Model the fold of this input.
Amino acid sequence: MPRIQFTTPDGASGALELDAERMTLGRSDDNQLVISDDSVSSHHGEVTFDGASWTLTDLGSTNGTKLGGSRVEAISLAPGTAFQLGNVNCTFVGDGEETSYSAPTITVSTPSSGYGSHPYNSKLRSGFGPKAKEKNPGGGLLTLLGVVALLACGVAVYFATQMGAA
Done:
């Protein structure tokens, strides 16, 4: 069965078996493939199989997915492909294969320039539970009311001390 072998910066290692056509990958426990390292985003990427090949797609992660030290948006995984998720070193291992392969054939999609040059479109997000709740628009009014109440208390204390001094 194909798998991703990984080693974290602190030396922990493991293997993630790819047993479905579409799997989420990240630090959070609600992913099918979990790597518990702080440099891996909670929903870092997605691994898909189209019937012929495996692809790893970065989902706008904070620390990125890197191939040969360069940040990439997607990697076509071939046996022996070495890549990084954040600071975690990974290697794709194909069906019944070991990690000793010569130069793999890979297809890479890289950003046109610089870190984060293509912002992640969160409207394409799927499979990770409900989106974050909208902020309460009444929060500003509540803050203003709290400030006015504190000022009223300060004025009351001032007048009470003035009356006591007289």
